[in-house]
Amino acid sequence: MSVADIVVLVSVVLSGIISLRLGLVRVILGLGGWVGATLATIYGYSYARPYARDWIGNELIADIAAGAAIFVVSMVVLTFISHAIAGGVRDSSFGMLDRSFGLLAGLAIGGIFVCGGYLFSQQVMEMTDQSSFYRGAKTLPLVKRGATVLASAAPHGWGLTASTGPEKNRDSQFRSLMSPKPRIRGAERDPGYKPAERSEMDRLIRSHQ
Fold first, then answer.
1. What is the pLDDT of residues 84-135, one digit of tens each?
2. Are residues 19 and 102 in contact, defined by beta-carbon separation less than 8 angstroms?
3. pTM for this entry
4. What are the domain boundaries of the chain?
5. Which of 12, 13, 30, 70 is the right S-S partner for 110, CB 3.0 to 4.6 Å?
6. CA 122 – CA 23 distance, rounded (Å)
7. How many C-beta atoms surround the C-beta of residue 158 within 10 A?
């Protein structure tokens, strides 16, 4: 088992255990809290920046403080709301079902995290499948499939592409050797006249002039 296999297994299992303890509702609301706080920061930043600059003289620090304040306040409010909703679900008869689906969601989130890490190593760190970290990893084909799906779902402007790797090239070469394209008889022949034929035609034309 390589280092990559250990990282994949630990990431997926740890994410599943955490989501099992939290439950599906709390996981979804937690992710929604991060998304909501991020959107609140994006849309509220332009409104809060003038007030922050009135209180803080340094514009750079004021801008950072404005964005951080919006994100923290939004995150705290959404966290309280999510805890209240998730607590009601856990105490109900759906508590066990909520945890069971939470485990499945956690495994899926762990898989997405691993595939995203693979794309990051390919695009930013410029690692290849033959690097010491990935060499001999049994989970690499599965991670590459997930990374391909994740890259295709991302916006085109991000420029995410999963590396096909030498394994896929070897497979395509093997398929091309096993199923060669049929040759068309006479396709490789020169459609023009041979030099001897061309000279004979010239002679016949001159004799009729």
1. 887 777 666 677 888 888 899 899 999 999 988 888 888 888 788 888 888 8
2. yes
3. 0.57
4. 3-159
5. 12
6. 33
7. 10
